[in-house]
Amino acid sequence: MADRSKLAAKDGRNGALARVLRIFLASWVVIGGSIAAVAALNDRVASASGGTTVYSHTDKTGTAHYPATFEGTLLGTPDHSTTNGAFATCLTGSTANCTHFPNKYSVWLTLNKLTKATNVGIKFFFAVVAPGTKSTPNDGAPANLSYGPTYHTGGTWTEREFELVKTNNKSVWEPIGTTLAKHAFDKYTQRFQAALFNTTTNPGGEYQFAVCQVPANPSTGTGAPGITHATKTCVKSKNFTVTGKATATITTAVTAPTTTKLGNTWTDTATVTGNSVHGAPTGTVTFYLCQVTKTTGKTGTCTPSSTHKLGTVPLSAATGSNYTRTATSPPAKPLAAGSWCFSAVYGGNATYNPESDNATATTAAPTTGPNVECFSVTPVPAPTTTTATTTTGTFTLGTAGTLTDTATVTGQKGSNAPKGTVQFY
Question: pTM for the full model?
Answer without folding.
Answer: 0.51
